[in-house]
């Protein structure tokens, strides 16, 4: 019998995994729950774990305590690792204290139900579990949206405050993929974000110092050098308390540490990668690494993880010319080169004025004042706030137009 108090908590698409070694119990459950839930069954712990690992949006797992092979506690503990969002319920005929403590500690059980369990009690428990699942997933979605929005805001601010450093970081981020593939890294988002946000601490540095650091670093005074040396720690402080960005903050804090220094192998791998790629980006005037840049950095080998330097030489140092990198955004060739740089897949080359540029357009040529002062370097994907700032600057001083961009085609965006 359906409990009207819980009638809105689940739909026919709500996935519930029921685990019991008794076939007659599974058959009875299928008859009872065929309306209101998308029921999946398993007759042993190993099968249940495989199903849970492969099933997207699995809301609830109900598992018998006593089964041959893996028991209920072991099964739910394994499912908690491979599908942590799924809410776990245990069925048991002898809910003794030892069983309860073990299940709670190892399987993070939401509720215990005694066997045999009346249909009304089971349905009520399932609806409560579905509500818990929806609460957990909604909070996670909100956290992801908040995190995404926070990072987007920081990147846009960085693009305005330190556009030169932003352009270099944007190029370096595109090279993380190739390094990660060589190292068989399953997830690279933290490293990409750490590389992208590495210059974030520059928001505390005066603009004239940033301009000098980019155009004439040899002219920096000791005081100005000290300001720039504090950039990693400032960036770390800015994001250290943002949920899920603790590792990214450590990458930013350690980005300038030399491998041959006192920390060496203790430096986070992401920070070692960031150090190499951001220095490589500083040597490259295009969006693709060059063998010359790799060779120059290799002469200062003590600064870099030797294994990572070896990968850089393998990827980009063998042919004496730029080597295309998967996922990278190509830049315009130097003036003495006759061929145009290849475009990223799904992009179309265009000449536009400032009124025609759109957010996420890739600059193929720099944007400068008519006087020659650089505003945004080639290789950057422009943001909405940068476009607004450029249009405001144009009211004060003329900007050289048109300029070349690469834009995602309608077919590629669809």
Number of helices: 16
The arrangement of helices and strands along the chain is EHEHEHEHEHHHHHHHHHHEEEEHEH
The total of beta strands comes to 10
CATH hierarchy: architecture of the largest domain: Orthogonal Bundle
- What is the count of distinct domains? 3
Radius of gyration: 28 Å
Instruction: Give the N-terminus to C-terminus distance in angstroms.
Output: 46 Å
Order of adjacent strands in the largest pleated sheet: 2-1-3-4-5
β-strand percent reads: 5-15%
* Helicity, as a percent range: 40-55%
Q: Name the CATH homologous superfamily of the largest domain.
A: Hypothetical protein af1432
CATH class of the largest domain: Mainly Alpha
Shape: elongated
What fold name stands as the CATH topology of the largest domain?
Hypothetical protein af1432
Helix-strand makeup class: alpha/beta
Query: Please, what is the average pLDDT?
Result: 84
Largest sheet: 5 strands, parallel
- Spans of at least 5 consecutive residues whose pLDDT stays below 50 are 1-9, 319-339
What does the model show?
48% of the residues lie in helices and 11% in strands. By secondary structure, it is an alpha/beta fold. The protein folds into three domains: 4-138, Response regulator (Rossmann fold), CATH 3.40.50.2300; 162-324, Hypothetical protein af1432; 341-414, Molybdopterin biosynthesis moea protein, domain 2 (Alpha-Beta Complex). Strands 2-1-3-4-5 form a five-stranded parallel β-sheet, with helices on both faces. A three-stranded antiparallel β-sheet has the order 6-10-7. It starts with 14 loop residues before the first strand and ends with a helix.
